[in-house]
Amino acid sequence: MKVGILKEANEARVSIIPDTVKKLVGLGHSCLVETGAGLESFSSDKDYKAAGAVVTDRKEVISTVDLLISITPIAPNELKNALSHLTQIALFEPFNAPDRIKNYAQAQHNAFSLDMIPRITIAQSMDVLSSMASIAGYKAVLLAANLIPSYFPMLSTAAGSIPPAKVLILGAGVAGLQAIATAKRLGAVVEASDVRAAAKEEVMSLGGKFIEVEGATDDKGAGGYAVEQSEDFKKRQQALVQAKAKKADVIITTAQLRGRPAPTLIPASTVNEMRAGSVIIDLAASTGGNCELSKDNETVNHNGVRIVGNSNLAALVSSDASSLFSRNIFNFLKHLTDKEGQFKFDMEDKITASALIVKDGKVLGN
To answer: Which of these, 39, 170, 220, 352, is most buried using a 10 Å CB contact count?
Structure first.
């Protein structure tokens, strides 16, 4: 196949790095890379050429390849000169943008959505959401440590002792667990809450204290996402969170519901009770936010409490994020293709059936 890699718009990462290009070429594929695609993730055009790629302009990449790989989906109007059998791989987010999927279907193309890869054991090496979430959890703690006007670790000096920072993490999935581990390494006292009972052991294994609210709905089939809870549970959870938030120096929120707005875990009334100088890092800001006062891609200062709405912190670690993303894609492609390097479109395979959202112009249900 001819594989195309594009420069992302408003995005520091790149979907495929030179090392992966070399592997793809080794499997018999040819790779076309848009000029400057990897510059913001510190992969030069020279690096891509050395790996065996042809570096050319965007128009040629889009119009000549069989497979187009990107992080953000390409605008439909850019695909008017693409080959009729084109297959795309990107983060299409079909639950959040169903109309966009219809536009791609009209072009009679095939599309695999990376966010639809099931979170099962066999697919772990392909799971870009988990890879990026781990980076986001790490970066969220570093960002918070940079913003709060105090130390993270306990400090003993001749002038007296400084107590450690108190960090509250809401949602103990991949991002939350990485945040716990990072905050503990920096010396903070860490508490974490999650609706999944299985998270308790994981939180405790990383040195965090698990905040348990009885009566949570635990849906093991939710693919790592939070699930909608009863009104009674949410009231009791909010009461406990508010009590903990009053004492927290940092709150990091990570809870998202697939295809639905993120649950509100920190209402404005809770923020009003927090100390000035406290920081909230909301990793669910793009889907409405876990904090009522969050604004996506903005930092809000509310009575001295800074609320950072950023669902794409992984892009701030562009080099390693691109490397992990690229490896995930390579593993995904190996799973999807036969020995000749052609797509199998095996609808009996759970990974294929979940991730394939458009086949020959037909929108598939997931």
So the answer is: 170
Active-site position among 88, 130, 237, 256: 130
Question: Please, what CATH class does the domain formed by 2-126+318-363 belong to?
Answer: alpha beta
Burial of 108 from C-beta contacts in 10 A (0-12 / 13-18 / 19+)? middle
Question: Which two three-digit tokens encode residue 42?
Answer: 């510190």
- Give me the catalytic one of 124, 230, 269, 342: 124
What is the CATH code of the structural domain delimited by 133-311? Answer: 3.40.50.720
Domains of the chain, by residue range, sit at: 2-126+318-363, 133-311
Catalytic residue, chosen from 44, 100, 125, 225, is 225
Q: Could you report the per-residue pLDDT of 131-149, keeping only the tens digit for each?
A: 999 999 999 999 999 999 9
Give the angle 110-115-206 at the CA atoms, nearest 5°.
160
Catalytic residue of the set 127, 194, 249, 282: 127
Q: What is the pLDDT of residues 38-74, one digit of tens each?
A: 999 999 999 999 999 999 999 999 999 999 999 999 9
Tell me the H-state helices in the chain: 18-26, 45-50, 58-64, 98-105, 128-147, 174-185, 199-205, 231-245, 268-273, 318-336, 350-355
Known catalytic membership, residue 100: no
Q: Rounded distance, CA 167 to CA 190, Å?
A: 5
Most distant CA atoms of the chain, gap in Å: 73
3-state class (DSSP) for residue 288: coil
Express the helix, strand and coil content of the chain in percent, nearest 5 each.
Answer: 40, 20, 40
225 is catalytic: yes
Give the active site residue among 58, 119, 236, 306.
Answer: 119
Phi, psi of 21 (to 5 degrees): -55, -45
The edge-to-edge listing of strands for the beta sheet with 166-170 is 209-211, 189-193, 166-170, 250-253, 279-282, 305-309, 298-302
Q: Strand, coil or helix: what is 269?
A: helix
Is 342 assigned a catalytic role?
no
